[in-house]
Amino acid sequence: MRIFDSYFSKNIDFINKNMGIRAVITGVQGYVPDYILTNAELEKMVETNDEWIVSRTGIHERRILKGEGKGSSVMAIEACRQLLEKTNTDPADIDLIICATVTPDMVFPATANLIGAAIGAKKAFGYDLQAACSGFLYGLVTGSQFIESGRYKKVLLVGTDKMSSIIDYQDRATCIIFGDGAGAVLLEPNTEGFGVMDFVLQSDGNGADYLYMKAGGSRYPPTLETVQNREHYARQDGSTVFKFAVKNMAGVAKEVMDRNNLTAEDVAYLVPHQANLRIINATAEHMGIGSEKVLVNIHRYGNTTNGTLPLCMWDFEKDFKKGDNIVLAAFGGGFTWGAIYLKWAY
Ligand SMILES: CC(C)(COP(=O)(O)OP(=O)(O)OC[C@H]1O[C@@H](n2cnc3c(N)ncnc32)[C@H](O)[C@@H]1OP(=O)(O)O)[C@@H](O)C(=O)NCCC(=O)NCCS
Fold first, then answer.
1. Which residues are catalytic?
2. pTM score, whole prediction
3. CB of 176 closer than 6 A to ligand 1?
4. pLDDT at 175 over 60
5. What are the C-alpha distances in Å from 323 to residues 196, 278, 312?
């Protein structure tokens, strides 16, 4: 008996792969705070105007989480609670919580653990994943591996960011773009040919100078000087990031199609990271897919960093059909970028 057990556990990966266990999304839920920050309000804060913002980015408004002592976990907990209710999932059955964020409540403990405690995920272990705006996409891949290995049955992945906590509302290059929001998905095993089929993930640390938050980490811990120099805010070289994003997000989206012999007709939807409407359109053009297949909600939420992909799937969940071929693509600071091909399961 013991011999059989050890043989079985050593070969479980092999057996699962051959049984075709894949991770499927079995539910998606978003949460955005009530407060709407419009372009008109931004016009009163920095030298900008609605026409410029809309034509250069596609953004009309974004949500802001107001209130003393409220961190990214507040939005994540709300999204996760509603997701568990919607999918009839007992929180005690969750095995793992991955929280993708660049704005954790605190440097430590991990925000994933705060979420787990709040929703009553008693047996789950959890950790935060930081890959800037590609975090949710990386999380979907890493969470899927735990399911595909056969080790876990229920992985809760949540992307959440309170970008307003690291945005300088005196800097027109960044404050017009970002907003707050969260979204969560439940990952479960499936052997019927649905779920995460393939992915491409990449990163390049040479991009670090173009999109970053200088202080607050171990290199430049907070001092009076770092605060006075406004170094606890996100900074970017917009046009360099823009060029990088167009080339690379489009590149991996096309690569994941080609690797899987998917034609433009085969793709039901592109779920792109919502950073700039022009970047989204360039990606769709490179993939050769029509605008009716490109899912966009940037006009309502701006760039919510780790919230964009789940918020987008949540907004369009009613349009998805079982078996739809969906491509997700993202890019972000680091630089990080990647694409996933999945078959929708419900
Ligand atoms: C930030 C971004 C919208 C700027 O658009 P752009 O077309 O590249 O514009 P530029 O930075 O070249 O600036 C063009 C002009 O508009 C001005 N400008 C910049 N921000 C402005 C604003 N908010 N309102 C009005 N004018 C603005 C610039 O000063 C510049 O003026 P100049 O020509 O007199 O020098 C765009 O570069 C972008 O979206 N980059 C990617 C950012 C991103 O996605 N970050 C998140 C990554 S996950």
1. 133, 273, 303
2. 0.94
3. yes
4. yes
5. 12, 29, 18
